[in-house]
Each structure stands twice: as structure tokens, then as C-alpha cells.
Amino acid sequence: MFRLFVYGSLMDPGLVRRLLGRDVRALPARLKGYRKVEGAEYPTAVRDEGAYIDGLVLEGLSEVDLRKLD
Description:
The protein is an alpha+beta fold. It is 21% helix and 47% strand. It has two helices and three strands, in the order E-H-E-E-H. The relative contact order is 0.36. The model has no long low-confidence stretch (mean pLDDT 95).
């Protein structure tokens, strides 16, 4: 099983449920050394040593789940 850090639209549990057909465990997480680019069409992370991005870690994902979320 896999874990995936998310920080954009995939933080919405309803969206994840619709995509995967089930609920998954989501834990608060912080990605240090990156910042989110504001105003981008899709959430984008770029390296920035003094920054961080708050998001979630989705747990218990299969390879099929990862493909669906991608």
C-alpha cells in the first residue's frame, strides 16, 4: 500500500471518494522546503528552503488508486 501527499483539490474528501469509490484515511501533513505557487492553473510546488506547504497524506492507496488520482 502507498501514501500520497496532497495539497490541492485532492484535499477534498468528497472528491477522493468519487474518484476512488471509497473513503481513505487522510492525515494532516506539512511538506518542508517547498511553497505553493499562487495563481497557477493547477496546484504547483516549487523548492523554497524557508517555506512549507500544508496538506494531507492519503493512506492505504493501491497502484490503481494512484493512477486514478493522477
